[in-house]
Amino acid sequence: MKTQINTLRSGIIDQIVDENTQKIGTNKDILNPIWEQVKKENPEFLKIEVNFNGEILEFTLKANWSLSRLSCWYFGSMKNEDLIKFGITKTKNKQAHISISSGNIIQIHNGGKSFTHICPSFITIK
């Protein structure tokens, strides 16, 4: 089984969390080794499931590495129709996307000015 991030917390105040999740961010001493392992196990792509309000959405995110290969974030497109499930308005002629950075920052974005963060507890890495 792959290393998971669903036990991590981002600490972002306005993120979407489930009722059982604390909004206190995970300590970097715990976060960093988990994130390093996720990057090692998924050097090119990160396949995830987002279990949100009883619905499972699947995404494949591409790894985006820095030139030094020290930092990485994952980015993938999503259907504009899925934005509504997260309370985000669709934007005409813009591509919706989801990204994961630092192991605990998950952003869903409409390609324009509207975005939201969701808690890592909604994510399962496949």
Structure report:
It is a single chain. This protein is α+β, with helices and mostly antiparallel strands and about 130 residues long. It has one domain. It contains two helices and seven strands, in the order αβββαββββ. The protein has a seven-stranded antiparallel beta sheet with strand order 6-5-4-3-2-1-7, with no helix packed on it.
Number of extended strands: 7
Q: What amount of the residues lies in strands?
A: 25-35%
The geometry reads as globular
What's the arrangement of strands in the largest beta sheet? 6-5-4-3-2-1-7
| Major beta-sheet overview | 7 strands, antiparallel
* Unreliable spans: none
Whole-number average pLDDT? 93
Domains counted in the coordinates: how many? 1
Radius of gyration: 14 Å
Class of secondary structure makeup: alpha+beta
What is the terminal separation in angstroms? Answer: 8 Å
Helical content band: 10-25%
Continuous helix count: 2
What is the N-to-C succession of helices and strands?
HEEEHEEEE
